[in-house]
């Protein structure tokens, strides 16, 4: 069983991790962060990217509803891995990890992030 | 009227104080060595209410734990497996940010600091006072970005019966708000009922309003009328050539400027424009005699 700080510590120990941030999606609050230069801006940007993806996919999916488990965005500089975590109290949390393009293993990173989120939140 | 909560908190933080700052009956800020560790506000769901609404523990269970706890209620709940350490931290953190946003905006509650008082849950998360105040400001800006008017913030949420388009995309929070709306409950009341933070509920309400999914009290908002803050005493009537425009109806006055701290309950203030008009009318009638 881990707390918020341990959760970020674990995320930063994923091979190739450059930065990690925990975002409250409903408010765009940066809950906790490691290795992100401007947490507030990152939080609102990531939260916005997630929202836009959700709306876009809902419109394009045949059933009209989607539940995003995680998002992988490959940029020219890094991978952005965004995982949603449902909490029992409020809207979802996003745990976002920025990964080195050359060093990261996406499969491993997704797996590790999944296990971290299970340890943080029981449901 | 005493000092503002923000100023008092800043000075308590400077002193490295530990204890509880009570803001009348509106809420309480708990400090630990100059850092905020818990905030409660009457209008926002408390940790107790969030725990109960999540279905993890009964209201009675919370009460018994609270009575038997000596500042370590959170640890008891974690040991009993009600929730994990991470969930407890997130719950406290969420409730504190939510309460801060609404409590710090209130004007003029009586402040009283009790040294050494602790919250029954214990200390599970810390906020530096400047960072917390900054976060409240960021949240206000985020709210105004969703929809820049406060006119529906304290009114019953009334969804439209028919939407103007063929389909609509809703977030999970918006769905819950619409489902719980009964044309009578305000956003703050809905938040308590569905067990969501008051802030997230308010954001959802503003987004729904922006998407034209809520019935508005007026057909169209005024194009930003120049409004003066309400004054206690009516000022001398100015000999202006044209009458000041009466801004909407008296009573609740929406959009009293974005910088003003907004209470969560409706304000009932006399409209100074009306008072001015009455005084001028009386003067004119007296001059006729």
Write the layout of secondary structure elements.
The complex is a heterodimer of chains A (123) and B (289).
Chain A (H helix, E strand, L loop, with lengths): L3 H9 L4 E8 L4 E6 L4 H22 L9 E5 L3 E8 L7 E8 L5 H15 L3
Antiparallel strand pairs in A: 1-2, 1-5, 3-4, 4-5
Helix pairs in contact in A: 1-3
Chain B lengths: L4 H11 L3 E5 L3 E6 L2 E7 L5 H7 L5 H10 L4 H7 L5 H19 L7 E5 L13 H18 L25 H9 L6 H8 L3 H13 L61 H17 L1
Antiparallel strand pairs in B: 1-2, 1-4, 2-3
Helix pairs in contact in B: 6-9, 8-9
Summary, kept brief:
Chain A has helices at 4-12, 39-60, 106-120, and strands spanning 17-24, 29-34, 70-74, 78-85, 93-100.
Domain count of chain A: 1
State Rg of chain A.
14 Å
What's the total number of strands of chain A? 5
What are the secondary-structure elements of chain A, in order, as H or E? HEEHEEEH
Low-pLDDT segments, ≥5 res of chain B: 249-259
Organism (chain B): Acrocarpospora phusangensis
Region (Disordered) (chain B): 216-275
Protein name (chain B): MarR family transcriptional regulator
Provide key terms for this protein.
heterodimer; A: 123 residues; alpha+beta; Beta-Lactamase; 37% helix; globular; B: 289 residues; 3 domains; four-stranded antiparallel beta sheet; 10 helices; 8% strand
